[in-house]
Protein backbone atom coordinates (compact mmCIF):
# COMPACT_ATOMS: atom_id res chain seq x y z
CA UNK A 1 0.00 0.00 0.00
CA UNK A 2 1.33 3.43 -0.90
CA UNK A 3 1.38 6.28 1.60
CA UNK A 4 -1.22 8.07 -0.55
CA UNK A 5 -3.62 5.12 -0.25
CA UNK A 6 -3.12 4.98 3.51
CA UNK A 7 -3.75 8.72 3.91
CA UNK A 8 -6.85 8.56 1.71
CA UNK A 9 -8.15 5.72 3.86
CA UNK A 10 -7.52 7.76 7.00
CA UNK A 11 -9.35 10.73 5.51
CA UNK A 12 -12.30 8.52 4.61
CA UNK A 13 -12.38 7.25 8.20
CA UNK A 14 -12.31 10.78 9.62
CA UNK A 15 -15.10 11.77 7.26
CA UNK A 16 -17.25 9.21 9.04
CA UNK A 17 -16.36 10.10 12.62
CA UNK A 18 -15.98 13.88 12.66
CA UNK A 19 -18.99 16.23 12.84
CA UNK A 20 -19.99 16.91 9.19
CA UNK A 21 -19.78 20.69 9.57
CA UNK A 22 -16.23 20.41 10.96
CA UNK A 23 -15.06 18.02 8.27
CA UNK A 24 -16.46 20.30 5.54
CA UNK A 25 -14.45 23.27 6.86
CA UNK A 26 -11.25 21.23 6.97
CA UNK A 27 -11.88 19.86 3.47
CA UNK A 28 -12.30 23.39 2.12
CA UNK A 29 -9.03 24.42 3.77
CA UNK A 30 -7.17 21.77 1.75
CA UNK A 31 -7.63 23.93 -1.36
CA UNK A 32 -6.80 27.32 0.16
CA UNK A 33 -3.18 27.60 -0.97
CA UNK A 34 -3.57 27.00 -4.68
CA UNK A 35 -1.12 29.27 -6.49
CA UNK A 36 1.05 29.98 -3.45
CA UNK A 37 4.79 30.39 -4.03
CA UNK A 38 7.32 28.28 -2.16
CA UNK A 39 11.07 27.78 -2.12
CA UNK A 40 12.42 25.88 -5.11
CA UNK A 41 15.27 23.54 -5.87
CA UNK A 42 18.43 25.61 -6.25
CA UNK A 43 17.54 28.02 -3.46
CA UNK A 44 19.73 28.11 -0.38
CA UNK A 45 18.41 27.56 3.14
CA UNK A 46 19.83 29.53 6.04
CA UNK A 47 21.59 27.65 8.81
CA UNK A 48 19.46 27.05 11.90
CA UNK A 49 19.49 25.48 15.33
CA UNK A 50 16.24 24.13 16.75
CA UNK A 51 15.35 22.42 20.04
CA UNK A 52 14.54 18.75 19.84
CA UNK A 53 11.65 16.91 21.44
CA UNK A 54 14.22 14.86 23.37
CA UNK A 55 15.81 17.99 24.79
CA UNK A 56 18.77 17.92 22.42
CA UNK A 57 19.13 20.83 19.95
CA UNK A 58 20.16 20.20 16.36
CA UNK A 59 21.55 22.53 13.74
CA UNK A 60 21.55 22.25 9.99
CA UNK A 61 25.32 22.14 9.84
CA UNK A 62 25.35 18.93 11.87
CA UNK A 63 22.49 17.40 9.87
CA UNK A 64 24.39 17.82 6.58
CA UNK A 65 27.89 17.22 7.97
CA UNK A 66 28.26 13.77 6.41
CA UNK A 67 25.75 13.91 3.57
CA UNK A 68 22.39 15.32 2.51
CA UNK A 69 19.55 15.93 4.96
CA UNK A 70 15.89 15.15 4.34
CA UNK A 71 13.77 17.69 6.26
CA UNK A 72 10.12 16.81 6.77
CA UNK A 73 7.92 19.77 7.71
CA UNK A 74 4.71 18.67 9.42
CA UNK A 75 1.76 20.36 11.11
CA UNK A 76 2.03 18.86 14.62
CA UNK A 77 1.48 15.83 16.79
CA UNK A 78 -2.26 16.52 16.86
CA UNK A 79 -2.48 15.88 13.08
CA UNK A 80 -3.29 12.21 12.31
CA UNK A 81 -2.06 12.56 8.72
CA UNK A 82 1.32 13.74 10.01
CA UNK A 83 1.62 10.89 12.49
CA UNK A 84 0.82 8.31 9.82
CA UNK A 85 3.37 9.90 7.48
CA UNK A 86 6.15 9.96 10.05
CA UNK A 87 5.51 6.35 11.02
CA UNK A 88 5.72 5.39 7.36
CA UNK A 89 8.98 7.28 6.91
CA UNK A 90 10.36 5.56 10.00
CA UNK A 91 9.58 2.12 8.59
CA UNK A 92 10.12 2.55 4.87
CA UNK A 93 12.53 5.44 4.47
CA UNK A 94 14.91 5.72 7.42
CA UNK A 95 16.87 2.46 6.85
CA UNK A 96 17.41 3.32 3.18
CA UNK A 97 18.50 6.87 3.95
CA UNK A 98 20.93 5.63 6.58
CA UNK A 99 22.52 3.27 4.07
CA UNK A 100 22.92 6.21 1.67
CA UNK A 101 24.60 8.40 4.28
CA UNK A 102 21.64 10.79 4.47
CA UNK A 103 19.98 12.20 7.60
CA UNK A 104 16.24 12.40 8.28
CA UNK A 105 14.69 15.05 10.55
CA UNK A 106 11.12 16.23 11.16
CA UNK A 107 10.23 19.85 11.94
CA UNK A 108 6.96 21.35 13.21
CA UNK A 109 5.95 24.70 14.74
CA UNK A 110 4.94 23.02 18.00
CA UNK A 111 6.63 23.81 21.27
CA UNK A 112 9.37 21.30 22.17
CA UNK A 113 7.38 19.76 25.01
CA UNK A 114 4.65 18.53 22.66
CA UNK A 115 6.24 17.97 19.29
CA UNK A 116 7.08 14.26 19.43
CA UNK A 117 4.23 12.46 17.63
CA UNK A 118 5.46 8.89 18.05
CA UNK A 119 7.54 7.81 21.03
CA UNK A 120 9.72 5.35 19.12
CA UNK A 121 10.89 7.59 16.28
CA UNK A 122 14.59 7.11 15.65
CA UNK A 123 15.29 10.43 13.93
CA UNK A 124 15.37 14.01 15.25
CA UNK A 125 12.01 15.72 15.82
CA UNK A 126 12.59 19.48 16.03
CA UNK A 127 10.49 22.46 17.10
CA UNK A 128 10.47 25.50 14.81
CA UNK A 129 8.63 27.71 17.29
CA UNK A 130 7.52 30.86 15.51
CA UNK A 131 7.96 29.05 12.16
CA UNK A 132 11.20 30.90 11.43
CA UNK A 133 12.65 28.14 9.27
CA UNK A 134 9.33 27.29 7.63
CA UNK A 135 8.57 30.94 6.86
CA UNK A 136 11.91 31.26 5.10
CA UNK A 137 10.77 28.52 2.72
CA UNK A 138 7.30 30.01 2.21
CA UNK A 139 5.60 27.19 4.13
CA UNK A 140 4.02 29.13 7.00
CA UNK A 141 0.52 30.63 6.85
CA UNK A 142 -2.09 32.05 9.26
CA UNK A 143 -5.07 29.90 10.17
CA UNK A 144 -8.42 31.27 9.02
CA UNK A 145 -11.29 31.98 11.41
CA UNK A 146 -13.49 29.06 10.28
CA UNK A 147 -10.59 26.62 10.62
CA UNK A 148 -9.79 28.00 14.08
CA UNK A 149 -13.35 27.30 15.14
CA UNK A 150 -13.28 23.81 13.64
CA UNK A 151 -9.99 22.96 15.35
CA UNK A 152 -11.23 24.35 18.65
CA UNK A 153 -14.27 22.08 18.35
CA UNK A 154 -11.86 19.15 18.08
CA UNK A 155 -9.90 20.34 21.12
CA UNK A 156 -6.85 21.72 19.32
CA UNK A 157 -5.81 25.19 20.50
CA UNK A 158 -2.84 26.27 18.38
CA UNK A 159 -2.39 29.37 20.52
CA UNK A 160 -1.45 27.03 23.35
CA UNK A 161 0.31 24.35 21.29
CA UNK A 162 2.30 26.61 18.93
CA UNK A 163 2.07 30.01 20.58
CA UNK A 164 0.17 31.37 17.56
CA UNK A 165 -2.62 30.45 15.16
CA UNK A 166 -0.18 29.59 12.43
CA UNK A 167 0.43 26.38 10.48
CA UNK A 168 2.86 25.06 7.91
CA UNK A 169 2.20 23.32 4.64
CA UNK A 170 3.52 19.76 4.85
CA UNK A 171 6.69 19.52 2.80
CA UNK A 172 9.85 17.53 2.20
CA UNK A 173 13.09 19.22 1.23
CA UNK A 174 16.46 17.63 0.53
CA UNK A 175 19.42 19.82 1.47
CA UNK A 176 22.98 19.13 0.35
CA UNK A 177 26.17 19.83 2.33
CA UNK A 178 26.34 23.39 0.96
CA UNK A 179 22.79 24.04 2.28
CA UNK A 180 21.37 24.15 -1.26
CA UNK A 181 17.86 22.77 -1.73
CA UNK A 182 18.14 19.91 -4.19
CA UNK A 183 14.53 18.71 -3.94
CA UNK A 184 11.37 20.49 -2.74
CA UNK A 185 7.89 18.95 -2.54
CA UNK A 186 5.18 21.02 -0.84
CA UNK A 187 1.65 19.78 -0.11
CA UNK A 188 -0.88 22.56 0.52
CA UNK A 189 -3.44 19.72 0.48
CA UNK A 190 -2.51 18.39 3.91
CA UNK A 191 -4.06 14.97 3.24
CA UNK A 192 -1.40 14.24 0.61
CA UNK A 193 2.31 13.75 1.35
CA UNK A 194 5.56 12.85 -0.41
CA UNK A 195 5.92 9.16 -1.17
CA UNK A 196 9.03 7.48 0.32
CA UNK A 197 10.08 6.29 -3.15
CA UNK A 198 10.17 9.88 -4.45
CA UNK A 199 12.41 10.95 -1.55
CA UNK A 200 14.79 8.06 -2.11
CA UNK A 201 14.98 8.86 -5.80
CA UNK A 202 15.85 12.49 -4.99
CA UNK A 203 18.61 11.48 -2.58
CA UNK A 204 20.06 8.87 -4.92
CA UNK A 205 20.22 11.45 -7.72
CA UNK A 206 22.68 13.65 -5.78
UniProtKB/TrEMBL annotation:
Keywords: Antioxidant, Disulfide bond, Oxidoreductase, Peroxidase, Redox-active center. It comes from Amycolatopsis heterodermiae. Thiol-specific peroxidase that catalyzes the reduction of hydrogen peroxide and organic hydroperoxides to water and alcohols, respectively. Plays a role in cell protection against oxidative stress by detoxifying peroxides and as sensor of hydrogen peroxide-mediated signaling events. It is an enzyme of class 1 (oxidoreductase). Residues 39-206 form the Thioredoxin domain. PANTHER family: SLL1159 PROTEIN (PTHR42801:SF7), THIOREDOXIN-DEPENDENT PEROXIDE REDUCTASE (PTHR42801). InterPro entries: AhpC/TSA, Peroxiredoxin_BCP/PrxQ, Thioredoxin-like_sf, Thioredoxin_domain. This is thioredoxin-dependent peroxiredoxin. Belongs to the peroxiredoxin family. BCP/PrxQ subfamily. Pfam families: AhpC-TSA. Its EC number is 1.11.1.24. It catalyses: a hydroperoxide + [thioredoxin]-dithiol = an alcohol + [thioredoxin]-disulfide + H2O.
Amino acid sequence: MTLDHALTGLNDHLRGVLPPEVFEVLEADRRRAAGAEFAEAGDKIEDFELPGADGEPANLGDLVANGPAVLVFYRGQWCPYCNLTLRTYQQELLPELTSLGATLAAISPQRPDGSLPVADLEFPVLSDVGSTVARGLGLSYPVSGPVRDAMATLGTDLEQVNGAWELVHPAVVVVDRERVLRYVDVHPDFVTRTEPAAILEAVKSL
